[in-house]
Each structure stands twice: as structure tokens, then as C-alpha cells.
Design a protein that fits this description.
alpha/beta; binds NADP nicotinamide-adenine-dinucleotide phosphate; 251 residues; single chain
């Protein structure tokens, strides 16, 4: 009997994370819906099961290492290993306000506590979760890690005066957190290359979700497509890269 591949998506109860879980499940994977709220995790897993998928809820707040360790323990007990980790959970720091409207992130006036909160989730949370499940990923024949980043994390794009993000207010929280996530992606990729673990960053594009108060123009399914592509790379696939649906994104 062959076992399904096992994929865990953080922040999978809604938005891009849910859509990524849905697409991974459609490829025959068992999906673990990791969410900080138990009820929301269970409801999302149940919705996927109703579509005929194998989906399970896990309680995981990426800012709480104890929940990451407990999630890893449950995965080990139930499945023995993990094939795919999607580090998707993220916050803008500005509540349900588009990062593009986030004047409260302007560097000269930003609240440092908010910057810390954003980094706690978008950067340190990724280290917490990745390290908690890495021993389980090492047991997979083809482990893949996808970090959900953003074009707002691209220094090249942000530093281009007439570039696509030039009209946005400067950001000391969300954008730098995604730049740091990109840097982490490269460092994890460098460490894990020799072990065959492919680690890449995904830019989903501007997607219609709660994080931007539904101002995005892509569907969650469209945004999730690049995540799923990177989660299912063949052995000759890239590692340490940054991609959107059309190809590489400049650092
Ligand atoms: P969303 O609908 O607001 O979803 C964010 C998810 O992250 C929710 O499930 C949320 O859980 C979860 N989350 C937040 N903090 C968490 C924590 N401490 N522990 C566990 N889960 C946590 O937004 P989205 O657009 O789908 O965002 C998903 C990812 O895509 C984020 O990393 C975001 O930065 C990135 N992204 C989005 C866009 C876009 O245009 N939408 C563009 C570029 C990148 P709750 O439901 O409990 O709050």
C-alpha cells in the first residue's frame, strides 16, 4: 500500500493557505490544516473532507513554539513523517488594512511593538515551525518547503523609483519582514541542499483576501498556484529561489 504524501499548511483555515491546501489535496495529498484557532482549523478540514479529500486539523500558532512542538508530535504519531511544509501564516501588522494603505507602517513614525509583532509571525514563526517539523521532513523521500513571501519583500522592486510598488507608502514592518523571510529561505536552502530538501519563496501576487480587506484582484486559487508548484517540484527543481506564477522574482 502506498501512503499519500503528507502536506502541512500553516494559516490554512482561510485565504491563500486554504486554497493551497485544497489544491494539494486535489493532487492526492493528505493535508494538515494548521491554524491557531481550533474551531476554524476543524471547520476548514471538514470543508475539505466534504469534497472527498483527506484533511486533518492541527492547532498551531506560529508564535507559540509549544504548539509547533505539539503539532510535530501529533504528525509523528499519526503519519511518521512530513513531505511538504507551506509556511503561509502571515499578518500585515495593520489589521484588516491593505499593506498598500498602511500609513501606520511608515518608518519614521512606526510603532516598534507592531514591527516586532509582524516579525514574530512572518519571520520568527517560520523558524519555529520549520525547525519543529524538520526531523519529520528529513524522513520524506522528497521534502519540500515553501515560504509564502510577497513582491513587497523584494528589495529590487521596492528600490525601483518607478517600479510596480512605487506608489505605496514606505513600510517598516510588512515589507522588511518578507525581505527577511526571503533571506531565511536562502539560508535554509543552503543548509538543506545537500539533504535534497528544496526550499523556495513564493510570491502569490495581489490576492483577494482578508489581509488586504479584499482589495486584491487575483482569486485565492490563482494566488495558491505558485505555492503548489513549488511544493510539488521534482528532484531537479530549484532551491533557494523566489518565484511568482510567471517565473523568478528579483530579490
Ligand atoms: P489571510 O486571509 O488574512 O490569511 C492569513 C492566515 O494566517 C490566516 O489563516 C490567519 O489565521 C493566519 N495567521 C496569522 N497569524 C497566525 C499565527 N500567529 N499562527 C497561525 N496562523 C496565523 O491572508 P492571505 O492573503 O491568505 O495571506 C496568506 C499569506 O500570503 C501571508 O503570509 C501573506 O503575507 C501572503 N501574501 C498575501 C498577499 C495577498 O495579496 N493577499 C500578497 C502577498 C503575500 P486567523 O484566521 O486565525 O487570523
Amino acid at each position: 500500500m502506498t501512503q499519500n504524501k503528507i502536506a502541512m499548511v500553516t494559516g490554512a483555515n482561510k485565504g491563500i493557505g486554504y486554497a493551497a491546501a485544497e489544491q494539494l489535496a486535489a493532487q492526492g495529498m493528505t493535508v494538515l490544516i494548521a491554524a491557531r484557532n481550533p474551531q476554524r482549523a476543524e471547520e476548514a478540514a471538514e470543508a475539505l473532507r466534504e469534497q472527498g479529500n483527506d484533511a486533518h486539523a492541527l492547532v498551531l500558532d506560529v508564535t507559540d513554539p509549544a504548539t509547533a512542538e505539539e503539532a510535530a508530535r501529533q504528525i509523528e504519531e499519526r503519519f511518521g513523517h512530513l513531505d511538504v511544509l507551506v509556511n503561509n501564516a502571515g499578518i500585515s501588522g495593520s489589521g484588516q488594512v491593505s499593506p498598500s494603505d498602511a500609513v501606520d507602517q511608515i518608518p519614521s513614525t512606526v510603532d516598534l511593538a507592531m514591527v516586532r509583532k509582524v516579525f514574530d509571525t512572518n519571520v520568527f514563526g517560520v523558524i519555529t515551525v520549520t525547525n519543529a517539523v524538520l526531523p519529520l521532513l528529513r524522513r520524506s523521500p522528497a521534502p519540500r518547503i515553501v515560504n509564502v513571501s510577497s513582491a513587497a519583500g523584494s528589495l529590487t522592486i521596492c528600490a525601483t523609483p518607478d517600479g510596480p510598488l512605487a506608489a505605496l507608502p514606505a513600510s517598516a514592518a510588512y515589507s522588511p519582514s518578507k525581505t527577511a523571510l526571503n533571506a531565511l529561505t536562502v539560508q535554509y536552502a543552503n543548509e538543506l541542499r545537500k539533504d535534497g530538501i528544496l526550499v523556495n519563496a513564493a510570491d502569490p501576487g495581489f490576492v483577494d483576501t482578508d489581509i488586504n480587506n479584499h482589495t486584491g484582484f487575483l482569486t485565492t486559487a490563482q494566488g495558491a498556484a505558485v505555492i503548489v508548484r513549488l511544493a510539488t517540484l521534482g528532484a531537479d527543481g530549484p532551491t533557494g529561489g523566489f518565484f511568482n506564477d510567471s517565473g523568478p522574482v528579483p530579490w
